[in-house]
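Let's sit down with a protein and look at its sequence and fold side by side. Which protein we use is up to you, so please pick one and set it down. Label the sequence line and the structure token line clearly, so we can match residues to local backbone shapes. Go ahead whenever you are ready, and we will take it from there:

***
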Amino acid sequence: MQTHISAAVAFDFKGFESCAKLNSLIQDGKKKTEFLSRYRDSKSAQLGSKRLNHFLEQLYEKRGSVREAALSSIILSYSLGYQYQFSEKNFTELLYQCLKSFKRDSIKESCLALEVLGLLAITIGCGEKSRELYKETAPVLSEALNTESQPQKLKLILDSLAIITFVGGNELEETERSMQSMWDFMHSRPDFKEAQSEAIFCWSLLLSSMDSWTLSYKHWRGAIPFFKKLLESDNESTVKGATQALALIFEQGCLEKFEGDTSAMEEINVEKILEDGHIPEISVKIGKQRLKVNTLPHQIQLNFVKRLLGSGFIIHMRENELLHDVFKFKPEKKQLGRNLYVAERDEVSVNLFVPHVRSEDSFQRIHKSHNSIFVKARTQIRNKHRDIKAGEEQGCCRD
């Protein structure tokens, strides 16, 4: 028996208006203001790119203070804007310079490098580069959990490992491997209270991205009694993390994979999480729109991303396509004039032969893997859009 999975590929675009024609559209005050705003944004982006390239060059300096200042400036730039083009163009260089900085003796430089790696993962989104980021950093970060003794650095290692795996860990085994590293840390190094609570939140983030039926029966047995015991901790953050983890396990189902001790649910302060048996909706204002999140997995992901991006969360929600996909958010598009480029229809068509054997696994790989052909096709379309948009802005600036 065979399965044919298909969808359509087509590019149907309205064309660009030339900048000369565009100038004729901005004679009145409102249109002129819109045009100048777009012009300033484009010039600002160009200047920002030059500054970022300068900071990247400074990562090669011998003086640690210069490298630390450069890393701090890169973090600030990522929080002020969505630096996709810079990240795409300089990905390899930035990745390996950050890994070098992470391995240096300076705790400050190492922590700053970890922050940049996490921001790079969110900015670059799904695709081949996120795969490279995962493969190059996950083993290093997992090993560091066994040897590092500085609490703040441990928390940043956990955060970076979590978000890098969330974005670039395509396969089930990869996600569970990072979860296992966090799980081992929770059990082997319980004296690091703050880092332990961070490990719980990071573990829950990765669990929130998985379907319960894909979970291994052998890895997480004992999770329910473990988190149940942590409810008695005198550390408020640990109790909050354990409560959240138990609630997520309960929502995911398949309790037998977590040792099936359903009595643990009776000791959760459910009122803090549920209202009348439902997850209370979280609403975040994004410009004139609102992002509404009403499932526990998405709320865990939202809280994690907000904490990681800080003040840059709003601008990333407006422009970052990874976050649009994760939270099913469609931002309002800025329009200038009446006849600028509009993408009317983007579709992807692929015919696949999928044997009936292991059809569920095949479906998972084809449709849900970040590295699937569907995701790759969508990425190609988006890259085309970005190139066209960049060409439009540069053309307008030259005029």
Remarks:
- The radius of gyration is 23 Å.
- The CA atoms of residues 186 and 196 lie 5 Å apart.
